[in-house]
Design goal:
Lipocalin, 125 residues, eight-stranded antiparallel β-barrel, 1 helix, 8 strands, mainly beta
Length: 125
């Protein structure tokens, strides 16, 4: 169970280097709403992981690890180019973190962690 919790925590974990608010890109958070599939391995999340963002600030993450599906729920908020989120891990603890949205179009989402690793997502039809 701890291994699964670690997978979940890495989803968006990380805080990009601090920037002045005036330098932050303005992100159209409405483009985030919908289901997204991980298309580029983002260790330790496996390719094919799916996350759904709703208009009311909720998220649901579906991860398949060793043939087992894991559903994780949480909330999110976009401020400038920062993606702030809170999730409930499988062991019941809550985790908060943020990432930087590098790219957000109608079809592509790229986020960067504080370690400068990127996760790339494609919008599902």
């Amino acid at each position: 169970m701890k291994k699964i919790a670690a997978f979940v925590l890495v989803l968006f974990v990380g805080v990009a280097s601090a920037e002045d608010k005036k330098d932050a890109k303005k992100i159209d958070a409405d483009k985030l709403v919908g289901k997204w599939e991980l298309v580029k391995d983002a260790e330790p999340l496996p390719k094919g992981t799916v996350v759904e963002f709703t208009k009311d600030g909720k998220l649901t993450l579906v991860i398949e690890i060793d043939g087992k599906k894991l559903d994780v729920t949480g909330t999110y908020k976009v401020e400038g180019d920062k993606f702030n989120f809170k999730i409930k891990t499988p062991d019941g603890t809550e985790q908060e973190s943020s990432s930087t949205i590098k790219t957000l179009t109608d079809e592509k989402l790229v986020m960067e962690s504080k370690e400068k690793t990127e996760s790339e997502w494609k919008k599902k039809k």
